[in-house]
Amino acid sequence: MPLQFDGTDDVVDHGDITAINGASALTVAYVEEPDTLASPPRRRAAKGTPLTATLVISTVTNANRVAWSLDNMTNFAHLGSALSTGVSRHWLWVYDGSLASTDRVRCYQDGVEQALTFTGTIPTSIGTTTGAMQIGGHATFTHADSMIGHVKIWSVALSSGEAAQEAQSFRPQRTANLLLWSPYHDGTVAADYSGNGRHGTVTGALSTGSEIGAGFPVMVM
After folding, report:
1. What does the pLDDT look like over 13-47, one tens digit per residue?
2. Which of 57, 69, 74, 127 could form a disulfide with 44 if both were Cys (CB 3.0 to 4.6 A apart)?
């Protein structure tokens, strides 16, 4: 049972995950089913302040193609195809700043790697500016009109094999380097089951009361 975000002001705030600050590797995974697609770009996840964000997962202007950026959408990598409403997908973004510029970001949809288009140069590390990790939107900035759940974050670049495993598993298959595991299956509590205590503060988002995506693993705690 994921959370329903209304596209206006709903957000889940997991606080400042300090392990992300200055990191040169990171993986972020979640499941999303968009209800509507709209301009301007809508942020799915972000860390930092709206105008100086050090991590952004957002749609690209007027294209509804999801992108990854570490400098508030100045330099980014984005998908070649647009999102579809009413379709549930497992997304897993991998960042490895030690690699060549056009290899630093990879994206997996339902465990399958997707082609990305790069604009500018992805930085070799994430900025050190403090700021909350938020899901579903970004403070007073733009928000997704979607159902979102199964959020997992690691302080390491997962392999393609691990990406495929995570797409089929409710529980994190990799527990090493796990920073956050918040499936959003507990109403509006947004508890963190990683053991790190990064429970989310839910503003506006509502529990859907049903699973997201036919065939996706159901909750087994």
Report:
1. 999 999 999 999 999 999 999 999 877 889 999 99
2. 57
Distance of CA 31 to the CA centre of its chain: 8
Give how far Cα 211 sits from Cα of 24, 31, 178, 221, Å.
Answer: 34, 11, 24, 15
Share in percent of the chain as helix, strand, coil (round to 5): 5, 35, 60
CA–CA gap between residue 182 and residue 199 (Å, rounded): 8
* List of domains in the chain: 3-207 (2.60.120.200)
| Cα–Cα distance, 85 to 187 (Å, whole number) | 23
Query: pTM for the whole thing?
Result: 0.94
Torsion angles phi and psi, residue 161, rounded to 5 = -65, -40
Q: Are 184 and 190 in contact (CB under 8 A)?
A: yes
Distance CA 154, CA 11 (A): 21
Q: What is the mean pLDDT of residues 63-79?
A: 93
Q: Are 10 and 147 in contact (CB under 8 A)?
A: no
Euclidean distance between CA atoms 192 and 202, whole angstroms: 13
